[in-house]
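Handout, section B. The chain below has 247 residues.
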Amino acid sequence: MKAASEAQLRLLDLQELDTALDRLSRRRRTLPELADIERVQGRLAELGDATVAAETEVSDLDREQKKAEQDVDQVRQRADRDQKRLDSGQVTSARDLGNLQSEIASLQRRQSDLEEVVLEIMERREAAESRVAGLLAERSTAEAELTELVSSRTGSERQIDDEAGTTSLARNAVAKDVPADLLGLYEKLRDQFAGVGAAALHRGQCQGCHLALNTVDLNRIRAAAADEVLRCEECRRVLVRTRESGL
């Protein structure tokens, strides 16, 4: 392949701009805000699940408390009825009086036990409500952090995109100075070799693979015409001769 030495030198300018674009793209993909956003989003998901579980527990305890309070009321009402019967003097048999007094005592014990159950449920419900409040507060804090991170990420992306836009314009202008066949080869090599399709020969060393050329290869390059497109024997990238090539 043939190309004017000026066009080959422009290929190095093109490579520099493409490397800059690749670097900007990598910066955009690896912004520190992205990892932080993922972390906060994960925490928000955990908080959401925990909040639902805690709110469900509060709801269950609320129903359990109402049921226990109803049981207390039923026992109290029954005990009140028995106490009224006892106080009314309607029961005269000693045996019936004894049974009634025994039942009242049993109902009072039952009422006391049920009231303890109600208190225990109320304590559990209060603790569950406290967990809900804490989770909601933490979620609010996490949401505020997420909003701040998203804003920061957007600002960073905009800055990178602006720089990439300017670099792309410069890249397109340089690409027009490179012959189509040489540009096609360069693009193909860029795809093959991690974004680097052309490299300068600097003091006898290929700047693509950073290996020093041997004497035979250097003599071959010295003998080559100025418009001949050369390739590094080691990495196969386009090798561009410059004033600093050491030839």
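Note. The chain has a mean pLDDT of 93. Compare this with the example in section A.
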